[in-house]
């Protein structure tokens, strides 16, 4: 578990009305739920205020008329008001729930869509747990705060207005006395606003780190156990957990101090009403029913203020989540189509399918979506240099030209720039300087989705998704038939092991493919890449972690896979690349040696040393294995 995690950006400490308006605008398309929600909230406020007035009428009526008071009218009014209140509450809960769930769905979908559009460099600086927290906890939090917060704010403000009007109409002098407490309440709210927001933001920041720690610990559990790192990881996690505890306790203390202050002020207002109102009743300047209504209103006047203060605190607490989610939604991918490319695609589009960058996978499209030839005949690296955002230069003035039908093998020490080279080729990153040309044109001038769809990439550690073997192979081309899926598996010699399984192609692979061996997962990933019928194959250490038998199976299918295509192969086992049309020894971002297998052996340079050393090592391992048998 790494000690350092992605840190939150600095945000303004005060409540940002502009930010919440941006979030609220995302709910405006739900007006068929939003309008009934607001109407029901106002209706509940009217019912609450009317209950107090009915109580006033009953007390004054009994005091004035005794047994002749119109009790039937009072009962009917109370029953009708209760029925209206029940209907309003039902509408309120129904609509608020709909808004919360639909808004969470929309925000989560938009966030995920934005994540899929981001370049790899975006994920290099953000742990998976941090991103998961944005798509789960933060999205749900914002949706709930917005839905139920809109309800409480509408009800609270409506009730405050009704109560204030009622107080002033019944006795404006006594009403002003009760309302005099409001400025003090406003001062306390402003003071606590900054304090609670800062502590709530710290809670969310540490919570993101804990989520990331959970995720990385679970994903790396095998490494942790193999290195006996349990206690060290526990100590690091304990440090994070202690920070979370301290921040949460501070936030709880601030809330525990704030809300009793609000309640105390409410009691003070009621006390003032009782003191002054009692004097007025004694002097027959105020009826008993009006005094009771005044006391009830004085107490209830501060209940919506208390609720508004609570929702304000929740807004402050959720603002950090809102800033992060909106920041994610506003993030612009560094690698995307330029306006010139988009204009070319729009001009060349003959159908809606073309305008969405859709291509036929069964054969190479004669034209790409931008109207240029769809065949990739040559790729050229011209004076390419590259450095990561927080690292040294990896490639320096790199030159390479590859034609259709060429298989280029990349060898060399770890960290030499081989994987960076193919990442640039696939346009996962873009050169810091120089150009990568496709058919003589800078690949940044071609549609990104079309270009990347022409690649079949097989990594050292293949990732399989939940589902069956058939589903995972079909992931290479979702419209492929079962026959095409099985044909791709046969070409890479995966069909034999698949049919030996109890459920064949319908065998579930488990999480990450954990029900299959490493070699079986790799064969499935080869079939998936082949099914996409790419024009360029990229194999990044694809055979380095599999057994020799599986490697032989793969080698049989490589010639078929590479025929008529451009192929880049990063190889740890040099015996697998002897038939490559060109072998490049990459050292510190430059080509140290280049040639065929035989040519490089004759040069007796770095490749010769690598190959002979590995050959002797493999031969010794084979002898030892034979001796053990």
From TrEMBL:
The chain crosses the membrane at residues 33-51, 71-93, 145-168, 174-192, 256-275. It is a multi-pass membrane protein. It holds the Pfam family ABC_membrane. Gene3D superfamilies: ABC transporter type 1, transmembrane domain, P-loop containing nucleotide triphosphate hydrolases. Residues 37-317 form the ABC transmembrane type-1 domain. GO terms for cellular component: plasma membrane. Keywords: ATP-binding, Membrane, Nucleotide-binding, Transmembrane, Transmembrane helix. InterPro entries: AAA+_ATPase, ABC1_TM_dom, ABC1_TM_sf, ABC_transporter-like_ATP-bd, P-loop_NTPase, Type_1_exporter. It is found in: Cell membrane. This is ABC transporter related. It comes from Opitutus terrae (strain DSM 11246 / JCM 15787 / PB90-1).
